[in-house]
Amino acid sequence: MRRKTIISFCVIIDEKQNRLDRFLAHELVDISRSKIQSLIESGHVFVDEKIIENPNYYLKKGEKVGVDYEKLPKTAIPSANSDVDFSVLYEDEDIIVINKPAGVVVHPGAGNYDHTLVNGLVSRYDLSAGSDESRPGIVHRIDKDTSGILVVAKNDRAHALLAEQFQIHSIKRKYLCFCFGVPRMKIGKIETMIARDPNNRLKMSVSKDKGKLAITNYKILKTFSSFASKIECELHTGRTHQIRVHMSHIGHSLIGDSIYKKKNYPIPKEIAKYINEFPRQALHAYLLEFIHPKSKEIMHFEIDLPNDLAELEEKMSAFDIAKV
Length: 324
Prior knowledge:
Elements (H helix, E strand, L loop, with lengths): L6 E4 L9 H8 L5 H9 L3 E3 L2 E2 L12 E4 L19 E5 L3 E6 L16 H6 L24 E7 L2 H12 L4 E9 L6 E10 L7 E4 L4 E13 L3 E8 L6 H8 L19 H8 L6 E9 L6 E5 L4 H17 L1
Parallel strand pairs: 7-13
Antiparallel strand pairs: 1-4, 2-3, 2-4, 5-6, 6-7, 8-12, 8-13, 9-10, 9-11, 11-12, 13-14
Helix pairs in contact: 1-2
């Protein structure tokens, strides 16, 4: 049965545009690349009447490309909410640099549509449309229960130039975390593939041959006897839950991370309850460095540990001293 299409094109070979997603991005200038890829992957694009679900499909001269919009999910523009908690580290006409507290989701999603960072931002700013109108201004994300620095775009030009820096991994991102135990190497590099966990769709996991390459460099900054460590992690890629997955993979799960904790670690009984009941993963995005999309200046931001992680460090340090 012939599919109902809204628009169709005849392919004229252009070496720069003959890949399916690039071809459609060139032809459908009012639709974002991410929506085009969603159309393709969900079976709403076809070539010569045959459904093609691979964005990397290479077109041939004379082929006819059709697009069916009927079942493309509609995105909603987020509502404003002035009660969302965050602080601004820097702002100009192009960007905003945010300190996001733990507990705040970055953008709307299932089960949380009006209490996210985006809802708070749109109550105060005009933001870029970006690649998804449900996530205005959002160039990158950190987990709900991770605290720290984010850069947000106010206009589409800034968004595109920042997104390009993230894509080529030229942005410097460093995190502080507290993990169980002490890694064998003081300085190390973790390089694996990370994919969706086949047994739990809410988790990510290290894979031998699936997913995307993930690279984390780490350095031990401080140890608390042998039961915990303070570690600096630098991301060279930005995969979902990357630091949490990688630290768990080498046997040193983050304190407070119930999702990726693999075993019960030996902890001194005097502080075991406090550490085992720590309410969120002990992870903080403390450093962000990038090139300003307009001025081309290097923008460098660092922030201290939030109160809960500072208290965690203080309690573990105090125990270490008392033991000596």
